[in-house]
Queue: 2 jobs
Job 1
Amino acid sequence: MRVGNKYIAIVNQKVAEELDLRAADRVDLKIGRRDLTAILDISEQKELGDNEVGLFAETWDKLKVKRGDRITVKIAPKPEGDKYIKKKLEGHELSADEFDTIIKEVVDDDLSDIEMTYFVSACFCNGLSDDETADLTRAIVKHGDQLKFHHKIVMDKHCIGGVPGNRTTMLVVPMITSLGYTMPKTSSRAITSPAGTADTMEVIANVVNDAKKLQKIAKKVGGFITWGGGVDLAAADDKLIRVRYPLKLDPEGMLLASIMAKKHSVSANNVIIDIPMGEQGKVKDKKAANHLKKRFLTIAKLLGMKMKVVITSADQPIGNGIGPVLEVEDILKVLKNDPDAPKDLRKKAIMLVSELLYLSPDYKLKSSAKRAAKKTLKSGKAYEQFMKIVKAQGEKKVPPIGEFKMVVKANKPGKVQKIQNKFIATIARQAGAPKDPGAGVVINAKLGDKVKKGSTLFTVYFENDDRMKYVKELKPVKAYTIN
Amino acid sequence: MRVGNKYIAIVNQKVAEELDLRAADRVDLKIGRRDLTAILDISEQKELGDNEVGLFAETWDKLKVKRGDRITVKIAPKPEGDKYIKKKLEGHELSADEFDTIIKEVVDDDLSDIEMTYFVSACFCNGLSDDETADLTRAIVKHGDQLKFHHKIVMDKHCIGGVPGNRTTMLVVPMITSLGYTMPKTSSRAITSPAGTADTMEVIANVVNDAKKLQKIAKKVGGFITWGGGVDLAAADDKLIRVRYPLKLDPEGMLLASIMAKKHSVSANNVIIDIPMGEQGKVKDKKAANHLKKRFLTIAKLLGMKMKVVITSADQPIGNGIGPVLEVEDILKVLKNDPDAPKDLRKKAIMLVSELLYLSPDYKLKSSAKRAAKKTLKSGKAYEQFMKIVKAQGEKKVPPIGEFKMVVKANKPGKVQKIQNKFIATIARQAGAPKDPGAGVVINAKLGDKVKKGSTLFTVYFENDDRMKYVKELKPVKAYTIN
């Protein structure tokens, strides 16, 4: 066991005083020729004698300790990063080398939770300039796994999130790779939402792959859609997220660096960023969206990356299904040109693909890029390509949609004025998504639709009917405003 | 064992996923009717089964667990303070109630190291207004022990430190209390210096006393000089210092609140603050000193405290001795009107006492306050009073001065232009102070003194002659600039 990300050694109060050590000091532990740096804790209990050091199993194993071994405890120097973290807290800009030192120490587990928290705070309170963000990005990329490709053009996309059902990645990747480009896409799992792209992809294909395997898949079929957590791209990021979690702190510069690092570490050089905007979105208005857009473009330039930023609507879910299996159904319908395929999802995917193609030197006209995007869908080439990717990653049998359902109906006639995304997401999550892959919500009425009293607004699916009562308690009909 | 200040519970990765728990989440542990909130950690090792929770001894004892007991683990709400800490990180001012909530949770061990670190960062980066500082002070006082006196006037002093040998407290307290005032003084031990007032007092009297005992001593002899760490005044402070330590972070508002809380919690209402200023001091110049002075005065007013702030010189050590026993020798010489008593220490003590007396309504003229200060020294009343305090706290036999000495001589003739305080402190500490109470430095030549080649500049005393080589390596003569 390690606590947080550090090896811990414990001595009693008396020993600490004699050695002039304080809690949170670093100590070198030495047994014979084996040594290890640990964070010191001081026990107030009587369990440790004056010549004893307490170690947890993980430290014990790492040092190959045998009971009764003689151990030397000595104060160890502080990590170099400490002074740069303090410098940043004091409001100064950091250099590329300084970020590099901090990030190397984060990845090597040389920084304690307290030190990492100070780093996050410093970035949050004092912000990161564009140069700093680019330097932080490079440091994160350097101290993590990287994928390299021989192709000149490597495409990628990122959506800053917040819109339920917005599963465009699973369309964009096959469409782009079907046209001969490389697109190595890593995605996240849901944290508080009913599904992340990795959760949805996982119902049809394996998404846990290491860097070596991913490189092989990309070579074979041009791309993949995998879980970022299964590979150590941007390793520092995961460590920092640990200390960001308790306060859910998203320092803008750190967020940008984290996104850019994930693109940069797969060698992406043509990238599209989707910023859903609206009062329900993570980005509330045009001003905030433009600010973010500008920052993305500046940092991309500093990193030598071609980038297009599109600002889209966050006003309602995209597609019909919300929840892993329901979303896969939507995607397959679009890829198979099913007449029931959700039009908004199809349209958004075509827009993103056109913009990405137009970013490359191969398409001089936006109209020809759009034609190519539509064609690969319509011809079935994108579907074929999707299945190739699925097979390369390891195909899985898609589980059935949840067998229990609850139909939520309009309680008066009128026009759909508002759909509360977060509420819909909460309903889908309470229904069991993403843990129950077949659970979730299907949207039956979209913004602007006219409904009668009793018309179906949306349908909630469950694998486990015990959960129906939780959803009922939420009063799901309130997710819609009809007037 | 607790890690940091929290109870810890550990589950394996699979259990964490099933319960939708993340590292650093709070969990309620329940066994029968006993429950406890712990911070969750997730083990990557195989040591825990899917139905097991790992607990440290302290948690185990607290919950009165028996091996094999059935335990319920449930996610617990986040502490309320989190949202105020985030608010402060975002740059907003906090209200009195919000500080109160945070400090209560700090004292109750409801906040993790990560959360406390965010709080310190927020105060450091965004600063605390005077109102906020006063509110934070009140919260710290409220959630700690307090001493109450029936006397109308309770005096106190504080020096922001940084000057070796500056042991005025041990003169001011007996002088003031000999004149019939109450002066309950808590002091600190050395952290990186060769002696704190508590270390020096400790060679002649016991300094570890609880609030009840201290109240009794003050009632009997009017005051005390004790170690602040022995009593739970300003308890929150000690907890926050733990997370401030790794980066040695001193947010100004937090520092002010910490000082003021220590005065306020002993009911002090007439307080003198000593700010040593100079290029070697903690406060470098007039501007910084005046800024601090103004803040002290404003916050004192908000707390209903009469205050005088004096700006003194940080250019050289005060008194001759540096190190616990050597400093006690100086103090006893001043109190006994020894002709060898260091004049600068005597003069500074008289100045501080005069200013404190003049602050009270009892002295209308500064000149009469000064006369009273001098008289209590000269008459031997202050010495008598000092011994009363020593006896009330528990007298100890003063250990001898270290038996080994090293005389550091001028290597050229001239005038003493500069004495490097920090270097002198390092020498005294390397000589063994404060752990070896008889070790330290005696200053033989002060600023402006004319010296010949070979004149003694200062003498280093050791209890242990092994340490002489370390001091030699430092090239101690460099502590003086002679020209």
Note: Chain A has four domains: 8-75, 81-127, 155-230+250-393, 404-482.
Job 2
Amino acid sequence: MERRITPRQEDYSRWYLDVIREADLAENAPVRGCMVIKPYGYRIWEGVRDGLDRRFRETGHQNAYFPLFIPMSFLQKEAEHVEGFAPELAVVTIGGGKELEEPLVVRPTSETIIGYMYSKWIQSYRDLPVLINQWANVVRWELRTRPFLRTMEFLWQEGHTAHATAEEAMEETLRMLDVYADFAIRDAAIPVIKGRKSDREKFAGAVASYTIEAMMGNGWALQAGTSHYLGDNFARAFDIKYLAPDNEVKYCHTTSWGMSTRMVGAIIMTHGDDQGLRLPPVLAPIQVVIVPIWRQEQERAAVLGLADQVRQMLADGGVRVHLDAREDQTPGFKFNDWEMRGVPVRIEIGPRDVQNNAIVLARRDRPGREGKIFGVPVPSALERVRELLAEVQQGLLEQATAFREANTHTVTDYETFKEVIEEAGGFIRAYWAGTSEDEARIQEETKATLRCFPLDQPEEEGRCFLTGAKTRQIAIFARAY
Amino acid sequence: MERRITPRQEDYSRWYLDVIREADLAENAPVRGCMVIKPYGYRIWEGVRDGLDRRFRETGHQNAYFPLFIPMSFLQKEAEHVEGFAPELAVVTIGGGKELEEPLVVRPTSETIIGYMYSKWIQSYRDLPVLINQWANVVRWELRTRPFLRTMEFLWQEGHTAHATAEEAMEETLRMLDVYADFAIRDAAIPVIKGRKSDREKFAGAVASYTIEAMMGNGWALQAGTSHYLGDNFARAFDIKYLAPDNEVKYCHTTSWGMSTRMVGAIIMTHGDDQGLRLPPVLAPIQVVIVPIWRQEQERAAVLGLADQVRQMLADGGVRVHLDAREDQTPGFKFNDWEMRGVPVRIEIGPRDVQNNAIVLARRDRPGREGKIFGVPVPSALERVRELLAEVQQGLLEQATAFREANTHTVTDYETFKEVIEEAGGFIRAYWAGTSEDEARIQEETKATLRCFPLDQPEEEGRCFLTGAKTRQIAIFARAY
């Protein structure tokens, strides 16, 4: 069989594109920077959506839908916001065959139009909090794109909430950061670091931006979700006010938070190996694939019979199972094919298994014979598969965590910083007391950026690796997507 | 209490807008012709989406996602298609601050870009059929808009399939028409007529368009879903070809089919009455509301205790139930409020009910005392509520069917046709052998259009009411949204 997936060591970017192509996740569209999300990739996204949506409901949020088009003048009401987004806008200037009087922006994010609506909906403290989420497509005119990670159009959810006080809004901001971290860790098996963005990296118009940062298989960082405390910036820009119990009219404090199809890229790059995808069972479109094995025609019916019996048993038990009964492919081809597609558990059933009324399980997260479990009795198959799916889920999280730990370095001076970034890669944890200008200089010299100030900060004081100033603040630096 | 909903007889259009406003379903957006779908309205749409999505999967379809933007040149490849959609396009001419070389159209529908992708994906008969659906927003520059019914941007699904033969594609077209009818009848309790569109009314680029037509509360027709057989029109325009088993290269036959947020408008106008919404239980965000009733403070705890016990019992049984424990509103206000929001079943619990360990049920589809069931023992509440929800679902369908039958007229000459349309309204069933020009004339003179040729056609011959020609073809005419 020809080598279709470039090894990660050889060329990580090519490996990523190979996996997306071979696992049939997505494809470039004929519009520059846009992608087509194919059915298998879209089902992973549906898993992300469902996992988040459930958590949003559990934390009291409701879904709604706001327009795709935003009047240009809306964006201009918040100065930092328009400055941040103006270079990335797609603009509709013609509608129904006529030049528009006011151009319409295709939403790059919806703080402005939602802020406008909130100013109409919110009158009194009784109307607060407003806790709304939207599932939508957004457009940002990106120059360098990469499927899932950075595309001109992408799918996401954006939560927008309004509160009476700064404290409540900040609580919400951090609550949703927790929701993202919980989803990433439990559902996507991606260990993430919760942290605050530096002023240089924060959202255009926010007072403070929070992030979950993940480490990809090449040691680079990926911002997998963000939650912003907007203070009263947008409330002032859009006049979102309420009458407080003390009869004073006050500005609301608002938040926004988003996670996007980028998460699918994070899953690919956190777990994938040289054989292809490795999907966490919680999100895998197919959790278990059954590959029947027979040589002689007289074995066929018995093997397929047992395979279908097991398939039915698992499906009835709520397992997403697929029986690969293709006649024109060998078992070996099928093994590789489903490994490449990242299916967490494979079941092999041959003539001897039929005799023993038993099956063989193989887990995707451990290669070769080490990952196989022989002679699982058919009556206990469902129970054993469920356990194994939980073990694979846990195994992927542990492997990713170990990888991150092994690739996180502490440095105390800039020379070492540069060496580590260049040679070892990965995350650098270091004391930091520099300015935005210092960050810019580091990025220029090393291509590394300040990813976040982890919420989990040390008690002890240290010295900034760049300026030597005393500080209690630890930052994480890395090259990033 | 002030009258907030205009009676239907007084002004049906105003009634519709009043219901949307008072039930908090949607609101006009600051962009002309666009709406904001508010949480309660969006949950109805989520019910529509889930009901359809399940049926699409059961019939073998997969979801995917294609880009929002389509190069202008793509639309021009199918002559009828571009002619139909050109006047309605929103066009992006500026991206990232620069004038684009080729303008991008915001998709009004995706046959063209999906056709382009299919031409790359389909090589052999083994690749067929391709059965894909997309959930997306689309934009059509409409001049006269109305929330849910006709908005510039709307949410929908669009299925796009490719097949080896005309027969298979036609089977798919009718299968999806059946899926839409099944959803409309069973989930939305809307009786619909399956039929074929006339050439004048068919989709731009289709060989044949099929529709489900529903009758709204004012007797007007509403096209609630369409399924198109596209022949090889788009296959030729986009070069969607396959190598057949006989080694010949052949064009595919394709279909497309869609249902949109318009369905929410159909639900409002099929079932609503002068008190407001009436939602079919299958799609109601809240199926049961519990209103506790007490006068004296010492009754409060006992009543709320039983109310919460019943709430928990119903929730555990999978019923979408809400306990309205607001302290600042009277039971009477709450009754009206939830009736207006269309909740199918109300439970009343007062001090005497606590004594008897029983509750009162009231169904939204039957007004006043006639719709009440007294003394339902608490232990059988779940079972009785489930039965009642099924009865309300059936009741709404029966009422709507009876209304449609009562407002469907048969005519044999054009004079009567004009009288009936002007005075009685509703549907006209009549023999029809006219041309597209005849249809245009009828529309001009009566504002009625040919809604469809019902699939269910009579055996007998008759005479066209306009031309007098003999024909076996029955058509339905009506004024329509």
Note: Chain A touches chain B through 53 residues (CB under 8 Å).
